[in-house]
What we know:
This protein has ten helices and eleven strands. It is α/β, with parallel strands linked by helices.
Amino acid sequence: MTEIIDGNAVAQSIRDDLVASIDRLVDAGQRPSLATVLMSEDPASETYVSMKQDDCEEVGIEAIDIDIDPDADAAELYDTIEDLNADEDVNGILVQMPVPDHVEDRSVLRAIDPMKDVDGFHPENVGRLVAGDARYKPCTPHGIQKLIESAGVNTEGKDAVVVGRSDIVGKPMANLLIQKAPGGNATTTVCHSRTENLAERTRNADILVAAAGVPEMIDGEMIQEGATVIDVGINRVDADTEKGYELVGDVEYESAKEVAGAITPVPGGVGPMTRAMLLYNTVKATGLQHDIDVDLP
Length: 297
Ligand code: NAD
């Protein structure tokens, strides 16, 4: 029987545990707070930000909502980040990507105080992750580690294949999988748009993480019998639905689930975990900034 890994349930259990840590921080006089900065009118970005704010409020994290006109000067964004860096009542800062073309995204990531960088994208935090001394693990790959663990799958000594090499998913995922640490110790291959014989490589995977952003590109024939399959993709494809589209992953779910030992659905797999791990990092940040010990799930 293939195990369907329930991301909603795992995320809920993480949120429940975080509530206890948040209570402890509040008792110590430090309610965690997360500032989200949106410089975009893209409906998807607006939705992501409002979901993150709702998530915060649900667990007792203060959500600070900052909107910047997408036509504004880049300086306005940098000034905002500087103010948030200096504000002791702000524990986490998240600038929703993408920013407009006239703003250089790498400079934005570098402008955020690394102690408040709850996305884990500042070069200092990336470096720490690579060096095996992570402060804030990026939310999506960290959530995937938790999902793999929840399925009772030990990564140690396994062949892991990550399809995708982006800075937010593929690269940090591979870095976590190779670390000499729980959830790591896997022999890890990273595939990308220039990889030859992709199917040959994915068929070798005991653990397959698909993060290419190509709808249903991995089918059952590309998967090893019994493999753990994590589908990161969220792709809109035209469909005869009320909205005119549906969401599909990078994995062709129906054929993959016949072969996989465990698999995440889309939606309801990785997505909820990404959101839960942002709360995790915000709680962790608050503890670190105020030197308060907090238990983390
Ligand atoms: P990206 O476009 O930045 O990177 C995609 C990567 O896939 C690239 O490195 C590219 O080399 C590789 N790739 C593209 N086509 C390929 C192919 N045919 N064969 C092999 N490799 C190929 O995307 P991203 O930001 O890493 O996101 C990937 C997917 O995951 C998207 O669908 C995105 O919406 C989704 N996503 C989901 C979550 C979540 O929480 N569930 C979070 C982040 C991203």
